[in-house]
Design a protein that fits this description.
Chain lengths: 347, 347
DNA sequence: GAAACCATATAAAACGTTTTACTCAATGCC
DNA sequence: GGCATTGAGTAAAACGTTTTATATGGTTTC
């Protein structure tokens, strides 16, 4: 049976209050403090988080929730991306002596199970980081706003207040990719994108197209192939592309590294050399990019920073709510960077 | 301000006790129940987990802790493996309406910060799943045993009680790999293993060697190259191997997929065809295996099942401790399986 | 018609902390 | 020496639940 503060107080021969003060570094005589500390050690006393949480009305816990869709099959593709983000958030949270509650949950269950309401009203977390994947409705935002609950959503969608948004400039990522390909002399570029309703797909596409327009490069809608962010999807897209003899691409831009790996596999199978015949550029800079041959040129997203900054922002929001300190907010927008490796070459 | 049970009771015009009973499906008149439920809905009442936890002396939370080493650099290689395990555990935990506390922590901090003691005595979790990576000392096990704290450790190490162990038959994995290579006619096999003190390395090695011995294949210690589970490590190992002209391998067994991907890159660079000249087999069946070209033959570990079973076991241990029910235990040992793809061929 | 039982409802205790308000003695100041 | 100030300590209230023991009124049983 774990010992309580009362046990410590009795053993040390002081009151509960004094014991509490000594352990929390509040006012106390040096002698009594030692007595109390000795007693605590002897009894292996550790503060009950539950008891403390109740009285302080804080759980010292941050929740991070990745929002899946039940319909979308279990994509291992999400792994690298979200694990990195999680580790970033975790690092920040541990630094601040908070506890981490990580979960992956379906949109459907989110509503059925009243997930958000339970977390908010159940007082089991002090703030939350939301990581949506698809552009569903954000009904739960009303609840969070109404309750002034500290939250951050990793999504640059219009309508989210800057203080609650931490995200990546997907526009810039798309822009960077096409800029680099154009600088290498490519004009015939196929864009293998993610699903049309995916959160990141459309903005990457806009950035990509904008840069093409700037160089007055003709671009046909059918040069964009919508896929599903998987290796197999990338593979199939290239097969489809090769079957269409009206297309003569010299470069491929894939909206993530998994699809790029699939694309490369399909090209190799068809005897097309990368980057000899066709250059390929990926997106995300996950492990895949380093591990395939040739090593993939890609757009890096600092997912770990993304997670870290999101956690930091949530902690700030909590501080502000508690009146501990006052932080000013602006929107956090991470710029992606170009990582040049071996899968692209000058025309 | 979130409403409390008291608010609900007042609005419904009943006592605190009655309100509690109604909400928890205990004895109650149907009319009063409706009144209470209506009041709860109107006030958006949700039970305070903290209040409940305090009185029930349960947190309904399971912790899962991946044990890193500060000395080992931040290996992204851990990602796929542990994220999968985590998702398995999470699935089981959510099914049972528990909360999930996931953290990655260094051995060093584990001791410095009294991590385990805080979790145990702080009563913030009801049970824990430990995922060590290296064979350090398991000093904390004493504490867990002494306090009869429900835990599971994902490690088949000798000395851990069967009820607390969930793990993979690494011996069998190594055995399977060499068995398959031998069946293809290979005799000259280089084994690129993980670090010597890594938890999984030595058992895989034993399995691998055992099978060779069964076929009376001569094996020299220098045919084992110890590396670090990274892509770069695998790459460097092959460079080293190629520099040693006394070696004439026809096959390579790599202790994980990352090293296999590095090995393949080095072979390709040297103009050696895979599997034409040298067959390569990996381990883990992570995303990498499917994404590289040629697709990697590998040993699959059902990491998700591993996590799920570990969580299930912890929940059982908690049940038993609480006297809710009685489960019998035996050691859980998952068998790895061989996944044949395109990186191996008959000699 | 008393005794026993039941369904329903409640008051009060309990969980382990922190914090507020208060006491008491010692010190410093004029 | 009187008065304010400080330091060290404590009792009691508070947080939001669940649970135990008890009360009330109504119904059944003999």
């Amino acid at each position: 049976m774990a010992s309580t503060l009362k046990d410590v107080a009795i053993l040390a021969g002081v009151s509960l209050t004094t014991a509490s003060h000594c352990l929390n570094g509040k006012r106390a005589n040096e002698q009594t403090r030692e007595k109390v500390l000795a007693a605590a050690k002897k009894l292996k006393y550790h503060t009950s988080t539950i008891g403390r949480n109740l009285i302080t009305n804080k759980s010292n816990t941050i929740g991070m929730y990745v929002l899946n869709s039940r319909n979308s099959r279990d994509m291992t593709e999400e792994i690298t991306y979200y694990y990195g983000m999680m580790k970033g958030a975790l690092a920040c949270i541990q630094e601040h002596d908070y506890v981490f509650n990580f979960e992956v949950i379906n949109w459907e269950e989110l509503e059925e199970k009243n997930f958000i309401a339970k977390k908010v009203y159940g007082r089991s977390i002090d703030g939350m980081i939301l990581v949506p994947q698809f552009m569903y409705h954000y009904g739960f935002l009303n609840l969070l706003e109404e309750e002034k609950f500290p939250y951050v959503i990793i999504d640059p969608k219009f309508g989210i207040k800057p203080e609650n948004s931490v995200s990546v400039e997907n526009f810039k990522g798309g822009y960077l990719a096409s800029d680099y390909l154009i600088s290498l002399g490519h004009k015939q570029i196929i864009f293998i994108n993610g699903p049309e309703n995916h959160i990141d797909s459309s903005t990457r596409e806009q950035g990509f197209l904008t840069r093409l327009l700037e160089s007055s490069i003709q671009y046909d809608r059918k040069q964009i192939i919508y896929s599903d962010f998987t290796h197999e999807g990338g593979y199939a897209s290239v097969k489809k592309m090769l079957a269409d003899h009206s297309l003569h691409p010299t470069a491929l831009f894939c909206a993530n590294d998994y699809m790029a790996s699939g694309a490369i596999a399909a090209l190799m199978e068809a005897g097309i050399r990368v980057p000899g015949d066709i250059s390929v550029i990926g997106y995300d800079d996950t492990d895949i990019a380093r591990c395939i041959y040739p090593k993939l040129t890609t757009i890096r997203i600092a997912v770990k920073d993304l997670g870290f900054l999101a956690a930091e922002r949530v902690l700030n929001l909590i501080d502000n709510k508690m009146g501990v300190s006052h932080h000013e907010y602006s929107e956090i927008l991470l710029a992606p960077t170009l990582v040049i490796r071996d899968s692209t070459r000058k025309l």
